[in-house]
Amino acid sequence: xxxxxxxxxxxxxxxxxxxxxxxxxxxxxxxxxxxxxxxxxxxxxxxxxxxxxxxxxxxxxxxxxxxxxxxxxxxxxxxxxxxxxxxxxxxxxxxxxxxxxxxxxxxxxxxxxxxxxxxxxxxxxxxxxxxxxxxxxxxxxxxxxxxxxxxxxxxxxxxxxxxxxxxxxxxxxxxxxxxxxxxxxxxxxxxxxxxxxxxxxxxxxxxxxxxxxxxxxxxxxxxxxxxxxxxxxxxxxxxxxxxxxxxxxxxxxxxxxxxxxxxxxxxxxxxxxxxxxxxxxxxxxxxxxxxxxxxxxxxxxxxxxxxxxxxxxxxxxxxxxxxxxxxxxxxxxxxxxxxxxxxxxxxxxxxxxxxxxxxxxxxxxxxxxxxxxxxxxxxxxxxxxxxxxxxxxxxxxxxxxxxxxx
Length: 406
Hints:
This protein has eight helices and 15 strands. The strands form three sheets. The protein has a seven-stranded mixed β-sheet, sandwiched between helices. Strands 8-14-13-11-10-9 form a six-stranded mixed β-sheet, with helices on both faces. It has helices at residues 18-28, 123-137, 152-161, 195-206, 216-221, 245-250, 277-292, 323-340; strands at residues 7-11, 37-41, 55-63, 69-85, 100-114, 142-148, 165-168, 171-176, 188-193, 225-233, 256-263, 269-273, 310-319, 345-350, 371-377.
């Protein structure tokens, strides 16, 4: 294809673009020979991974003369915490020792694709620039994206051509769903919170966490959110004696932990391709043994070589010396929920320095130690306020990963 092709970028039209989008997605899914590659099935909805955000958009690129689609990009905007401050105003902050969140409007780029036969023509850059134009028009101060550290083409495009900076490197932790249920310690009680109780707890304890969404209530009440679960030492509370988040937070136990579960299975499915026959046979054997002898509680490799669903754990946090052990119990509970839903894996993403990380079970072979988040400030006319330029801020201990953008 000659370099003189004129490329037009326009709004995605679901009434006529579905088959073309799927074709581009298929052409982009080219794994390395002999290497396992992960592919995504969007279940016929190209916007599914941003659809639940407050505002979203999808753009496509096509050759003007032939109307052949050669690229696409998705984006969304929301308001999140970018820092914290102390207020001397007793009305807005009754407890002056407790910091208040500083919010900013941020945009997220997801699912940039350019057909392999049309790369190195500036199409990716043009799609990003058009999406950033929409971000600015909607008042976003920052734009960010997640990409693999070893996706050199993507990293080069965003850091060298689009002006993004390397920002955070959270860990993606993936644990298989076994054929047997996981045992939860009898020293732990797990309570399911109502969305209102969950919102109160999150806003009180985690609203100053980086990337915490201001519309956390919309996240928790979404149909894809399967619930928020609180782990406490046995004997502290039961489901019947639960007093509500307000009283709980006024006199919490020495240790506690919380997390929420998001049902990605209803949004998209994944599939591992490129496995050898030996690996497939070995994985199948572990599942057979696990299913026939569940009392042995052997770790088995689930069926990931066909489309499988996942549950995503978000809002993970806790306090106290036993918090990591309570997180482990919550992860076992989440595993058992995923088993009931016939999911293949349970996934979470946490800051690389997250202290509760040691309580999260995961397989190294399926996980990513350092996911790369890149960020860009969209305009210099914004006030620095009490945070300054967020792109230059040091990483915090924890991070809030919005399940709507998984």
